[in-house]
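Hi W.,

Here's what went into the run:
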Amino acid sequence: MFDRIADVLEFKGELQFRVLAYRKASRVLQDLRDDIETIWKEGKLEDIPGIGEGMAKKIDEYLSTGKMTKYEEVTKGIPSSLIDLLNIQSLGPKTLALAYEKLRVKNLEDLKRVIADGSLAKLPRMGDKKVQSISKGIELFVASHERMSLGIALPLAERVIEELKKAVKVGRISTAGSLRRLKETIGDIDILCEGTDTTKIIEKFTQLPVVERVLASGGTKASVIADGGIQVDLRVVEPASYGAALQYFTGNKDHNVKLRGIAKDKGLKINEYGVFKGEKRLGGKDEEDIYKIVGVPIMEPELREDRGEIEAALAGTLPKLVTRSDIEGDFHVHSIYSDGSDSLETLAEKAVSLGYSFIAICDHSKSANYAGGLSETTLLKQIAEIKKVNARFKGEGFRLLAGSEVDIKADGTLDFSDDILKKLDVVIASIHSGFKQRVTERMTTAMKNPYVHIIGHPTGRLISRREGYEVDLGKVMEAAGDTRTALEINGFFDRLDLTDIASRKAKELGITMAIGTDSHNTAHLEFMKFGLAVARRGWLEKKDLLNTRKPEAILKWLKAKKAAS
DNA sequence: GCCGTTTTCGGCCCGACTGTTTTCAGTCG
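Here's what came out:
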C-alpha cells in the first residue's frame, strides 16, 4: 500500500522526498525479520528505521481496522490501470500526468491510441523520438516485466562477459547491481568494465551476438536487450575509477545513500568516479578505497542491502560469511531410484570432483507417485547399494549418506514408519501436498519425530510461480529450536527456500541450517552456489550450517536428536 | 515523511543519457 501511495503521489507531482519516504517505508517492512503484528503489539513500530510517527499511525490504523484512510484518499479517483503504466520504461510520472490531463489517458489501450493517432507527440516537450521510445517501453512491458531468477541471470551474464572479452580488449570486468549481490531475482543485468578506449568497447558491446536490440548507447554506457528479453547495462570506466564505479553500481540504492550520507558528514563526496574532498580525488581505483576513506569497514556485496550492515561494520560486528570452501557436502540429492537421472556412483564421482566429503541421497518416499517415490523394499535395496559405493570411495575421504525426503502427508503422518526411518543416516521431511491443510501443525508434529533431522523447503514457495504453503514460519522456527531440528535452505534456483531474510531470523534463534540443492542430476549439484548465496545474504557463518562439518561430525549431530528425546 | 543530539526546522546522494530545447526537463539507475 505504501508503494502504491508513493506511485500515486509521484504521479500527482508530490515532493520527491515524501515519495521516497513511502518507498523506504515499504522496503523496510518487506525486509522485516519479525512479524509486523508482533512489533505493532509491542508498540515498537517507530523503532523501525524509516517508520516515523506518520507511518506508524497508518500501520496502526490498518492493523486495527483493516483500512488505511491515507491510501483511500490518495488513490481516490485514480484508476490503478493508469498507475500501472508507470512500469513502462521511458514513461515517467510527468509524462503520464500530462497524457492523463490533456488526453484523458487512463489505461494501456488509451496510451496506445494516443500514440497511434499522433496526439501524444504533439504535447509540449514531446516529440516523435520520445514517443518512439515509449512505444519500445510498451513492447517490453507487455512481453515481460517480471524479474528473472538468479539461476537464469547469472549464466547469461557470464556469457555476455565472455563474448565481450572475445570481442574487445578490456581490463577488470565484473557483474554489478543485484546480480553481484546475488539477490534471488534480478531485474536487469549490470556489467561494469575497465577500459581506456570506452567508445570502442561500447560499440563492440552493442554488436555482440547475444544482443537483440540496443536501447541506448553513449560515451560511457549502453543498454541493450539480450536473448530472452532481458536488459543488460554496460558501464565503462577508466582504471582510476573502477573501484568507485563497482561500489556505486553494486548498491543497493539505500546502502549507497547511507554511505554517501556518512561521507558527506565528513566533508567528502562519493560518486562513481571516486571519493573527493573538494576537487581532489582521494581514491577510487579499488572498491576497498571507498570504504576505507569513509571509515566504514568493507563488507561482502551480498550484505549491502541496508539491512544493518553499515551499522554492524562501524560496530565491528560484521559476520564472517560462510564460503564455498567451507562446504563439505550437500544434503538433498535425488538419484535414478526416484525422479533423478544419475546413478549413485555417478553422483558420488561428481561430488568428489567438487571437493565434497559427503552427499546425502534423499530420494522421494512411497506416496510421491508423481516423482517415483521409493517403496520400503527399494529403499532398503538403496541403502545396501550405498554401502557398496562407500566401500569404493573410502580411500578418497568421501561417503554417501543414506537418506530420504519423506513426505509429510496431508493427514500429518510421515510416509515411512520409524522402523524404516531409523535405518537411515539423515531424514528430510517435506510437504508436497495439502498446501493449505494445517501445514504448521503438520510440520511441527514431524519435527517431534526423533528420526526427522531436517525440514525440506519450509515455505514451499516457487519463485514467481507459487506463493508457498499457508505456514506460520515463526511457529515452525520455534519448534525447530525446541526439537533441535535443522531447517533447509533449498538451493534449487526456483525455490531458494528458506529465503535470505528467514535464514537470518533462524540464525538469530540459534537454529542450525542445512543447504540442499534438491539435485536431480550431477549438473544440479552446482546449484550449491545459489544456496550459498541465500546463506550469505542471510548473514550465515560457518558454524550456522551443517554442511560445513565432516560426515562423522554430522552423523554425531544427527544422532544426538534421538538420544535427547 | 523522516530524522537529529551542535539542529524540532531544514536538510534529504549523485550523475548519465535522451530529446526537445537553445539552457533544461524528464527518466533512469
